[in-house]
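Backbones bend. We report:
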Amino acid sequence: MDKFKKYNRHSIRLKGYDYSKAGAYFITICTQNRKCIFGDIVDGEMQLNDMGSVVMDEWIKTAGTQQGIKLDEWVVMPDHFHGIIIFTESVGAIHESPQHESPLQMTQRQRRNMGLSKSIGRFKMLSSKKINIIRQTPGVKLWQRDYWEHIIRNNNELINIRKYIKNNPGNWQSR
């Protein structure tokens, strides 16, 4: 049996859409098995624990990984993360701190295209590594394999999604 047919996976991305071009994207990322590990909702407010603070810090750092990324409304929830990421221009090279690389290797690394999937992948990888250090669980999967995204097409959508994100902790009990 073909290993790809076994799982019947298909892309949830919009076919033919360039996810590295300027635009706004609404992202939802869930923890593995929807495990509540980032803190608790208390009186309609999210109270981050150490692991939730790692997620917050890594998300904030996402804007500094390359020129053209702006973060909008976002929230860390007990078992998931919502955020709006805006590419103010087509995204290109990322700026990493390479370890023990020659200038030529560093230049080649900085030329990598950093579209939406790579930005989210980087965020998931770095937050996972740091949280697994805190939990003393090296290599344990923190996030679900994929993430959900929505291309924000107009200002009304942006306003409604911002409201949804902002109200998400208050609506936690009614889910």
Summary: Strands lie at 23-30, 39-42, 45-48, 69-76, 80-87, 148-152. Residues 12 and 148 are 8 Å apart (CA to CA). Confidence is low (pLDDT under 50) at residues 93-99, 104-113. The chain has one domain: 19-169.
